[in-house]
Specification:
Elements (H helix, E strand, L loop, with lengths): L1 H57 L6 H13 L5 E11 L3 H10 L15 E10 L16 H13 L3 E2 L3 E2 L4 E10 L7 E10 H6 L8 E6 L10 E9 L2 E9 L7 H53 L9 H6 L1
Antiparallel strand pairs: 1-2, 1-6, 3-5, 4-5, 5-6, 7-9, 8-9
Helix pairs in contact: 1-2, 1-6
Length: about 325
């Protein structure tokens, strides 16, 4: 009985664990699909807003801080999760830095100091910057060319005439990306006037999406080695402008809870307790049977002795049969 009880408990615990795993797999598939759809939608919204704003700024022949401030105000109110800032960036050759700095100071970039990155023939300076998402403002005049990832995205968007997303760069706190939308005029001979650039932090971007809430998720660039960890995991790719991102979602516990172990321990305890009670009852019955048999034997012997005493001659009788037995 003990073996049967323990085997039944183990099988029940294994069945519960398998059912939990299957349920977790299904839920993980559904939540990952929802998170992928949310990333696609939000990334598309980023691109559309940035592209529309850039198109409007490209029409301004004498763009000033007031113009930039008015054009980017809707971006600040759009609730772009993970966005850190949006900036107007212009190219400049090393020999033209002084003239570019003077021109943009005259257009409202008060106190602008351009800070060129070394060993570059062309620089990409931020002229006007608006912080987003409650972050602190970065100083104007920084050279985006100092970041190879940002420089590649800027050059690519200028060549294609389409928005571009940088490769990811990280600082140990999660990957960040740069969106860049080029500003080309719509004249018969289009003139390039710079870029509208938005920064995005991957972890903050994901945490701001309701569909990804509660998921252990990472957003990484497709093509580079991706970390593998034990546990329930799903991966999916997302097209963002001219690049692909990989969304990794994980459930560190593998969909497990303590229920199977609780059932296993509880079932074993119950089985052993019942087995102990059955054993106690069985041994008590045997003891009772032995006691009854002993008493019956004693009574039988006493009855025989009394019978012999009644039929014995008078002189051989004893008054107390128990004393006779004792003798």
């Amino acid at each position: 009985m003990v073996v049967a009880g323990l085997a039944g408990t183990a099988l029940t615990s294994m069945a519960i664990r398998a059912d939990q795993r299957e349920t977790a797999e299904t839920v993980m598939d559904q939540r990952t699909a929802a998170a992928l759809a949310a990333v696609r939608t939000e990334a598309g919204r980023y691109r559309a807003l940035l592209e529309a704003t850039a198109a409007g700024l490209a029409l301004d022949d004498r763009l000033s801080w007031d113009d930039f401030d008015a054009a980017t105000a809707p971006l600040a109110a759009a609730g772009l999760s993970g966005a850190t800032s949006v900036a107007y960036v212009v190219p400049a050759r090393t020999a033209d830095i002084a003239a570019v700095q003077r021109r943009w100071r005259e257009r409202g970039a008060t106190g602008l100091v351009l800070q060129p990155a070394p060993a570059r023939g062309e620089h990409y300076f931020s002229i006007f910057t608006r912080p987003l998402g409650g972050t602190s403002a970065s100083p104007d005049g920084l050279d985006a060319g100092a970041s190879p990832e940002a420089a590649e995205a800027l050059e690519g968007s200028r060549s294609s005439g389409q928005p571009s997303v940088s490769d990811a760069y990280g600082d140990g706190q999660g990957f960040s990306f740069v969106f860049a939308a080029p500003l080309w005029t719509r004249a018969s001979r289009p003139e390039f006037r710079g870029w509208l650039v938005a920064g995005l932090r991957g972890p903050d971007f994901l945490s701001g999406l309701p569909a990804a809430a509660g998921l252990n998720a990472e957003l990484l660039p497709t093509g580079r080695p991706l970390p593998g960890r034990p546990g329930l995991e799903r991966r999916g790719t997302v097209e963002v402008a001219d690049r692909q991102w990989t969304l990794i979602t994980r459930a560190a516990s593998g969909g497990r809870t303590g229920l199977p172990l609780t059932v296993l321990i509880g079932g074993c305890v119950l089985t052993l307790t019942v087995a102990g009670l059955v054993h106690a009852l069985a041994t008590a019955r045997r003891r009772a049977v032995r006691t009854v048999r002993r008493q019956a034997a004693l009574l039988s012997e006493r009855a025989e002795l009394e019978e012999l005493t009644r039929h014995a001659p008078p002189d051989d009788r004893v008054r107390d049969p128990s004393r006779a037995v004792a003798d």
